[in-house]
Amino acid sequence: MPYAITDDGVKLYYEETGSGTPVIFVHEFAGDQRSWEPQVRHFGRRYRAIAYSARGYPPSDVPEAISFYSQNRAADDIAAVLEHLGIGRAHVVGLSMGGFATLHFGFRHPARALSLTVAGCGYGAEPSQREQFRAEAETIAAFIKSQGMAAFADKYAHGSTRVQLENKDPRGFAEFKRLLAGHSATGSANTMLGCQRERPSLYDLVDQMKALTVPTLVLMGDEDWPCLTPGILMKQNIPSAALAVMPNCGHGINMEEPDEFNSIVSDFLAQVDSGRWPTRDLCAVTTSIMGMR
Predict the structure, then answer these.
(1) 242-247: long-range contacts at Cβ-Cβ below 8 A with a sequence spacing of 24 or more?
(2) What is the mean pLDDT of the segment spanning 25-37?
(3) Is 140 left (phi over 0), alpha (psi -120 to 50) or beta?
């Protein structure tokens, strides 16, 4: 099996297909590299498509200590995979936990990013929800440790932003739930505590957003409620960002509507690759309600 080794000695399993400009996919908490199969098949026709499993997700290593898991490590692990593959710059596409990692990769390694697709990003970001989010993360980790992944998957997979996948694609939903149930309990609990619970609020990162010049696509489903307001925050403050919202969609948009997801991201990458992706014109920024400057 192919592995990249991080600077703290963790082995990350990856898969790749195709050739050309690299695109690396960064999965969500409830997924792994297999979650990106609809994208790897699509983008592998025109790009060098790479997907990897985060630390804590077999066949990647599962460190026992929570200290091995953090938001910064998640961002730096993207760089570790690129470094191992000899890739200087790549398009980075992340969903949810992977969307946070993608955004932080842009903050920490902007010279390595051709573009950033930050999808389904925002859970627990709003200031009024911070303590609730942290408490829920601790509850989830405790449940995983005591009840195991199968019991966790049976509850988590039926959440309010997952029912859309279940209703549209019962077979796809069953596969999502089955793969989630097979994850490492140790890795999932540690990820929830070390990475999810401890990550900074997006509302504390506005200055870094304003300094970000990498072409950025903020993408979400319109029924992914925890991401809607944070998505607008990113659009407002990242000068190179566009906002796209997929109608009647929940959280797992790359699996829920893969053709639409692939089309939106493909158009974005094509504009970036052609050098036509804009930075916001300052004339579009005004305090006037009617648009007068």
Answers:
(1) 242/216, 242/217, 242/218, 242/268, 243/218, 243/219, 244/217, 244/218, 244/219, 244/220, 245/219, 245/220, 245/221, 246/219, 246/220, 246/221, 246/222, 247/222
(2) 98
(3) alpha
Tens of pLDDT along 104-119?
999 999 999 999 999 9
Count the neighbouring beta carbons within 10 Å of the beta carbon of residue 56: 26
Mean per-residue pLDDT for 21-45?
Answer: 98
CB 125 within 8 A of CB 200: no
**CA angle in degrees (0–180, nearest 5) for 48-49-52:** 135
Q: What is the DSSP string of the chain?
A: --EEE-TTS-EEEEEEE--SSEEEEE--TT--GGGGHHHHHHHTTTSEEEEEPPTTSTTS---SSGGG--HHHHHHHHHHHHHHTT-S-EEEEEETHHHHHHHHHHHH-GGGEEEEEEES--TT-SGGGHHHHHHHHHHHHHHHHHH-HHHHHHHHTTSTTTHHHHHH-HHHHHHHHHHHHTS-HHHHHHHIIIIITTSPPGGG-HHHHHT--S-EEEEEETT-HHHHHHHHHHHHH-TTEEEEEETT--S-HHHHSHHHHHHHHHHHHHHHHTT-PPPPPGGG--S-TT---
pTM over 0.90: yes
Distance CA 34, CA 40 (A): 9
Q: Are 226 and 122 a contacting pair, CB within 8 Å?
A: yes
Summarised one tens digit per residue, pLDDT across range 130-179 is: 999 999 999 999 999 999 999 999 999 999 999 999 999 999 999 999 99
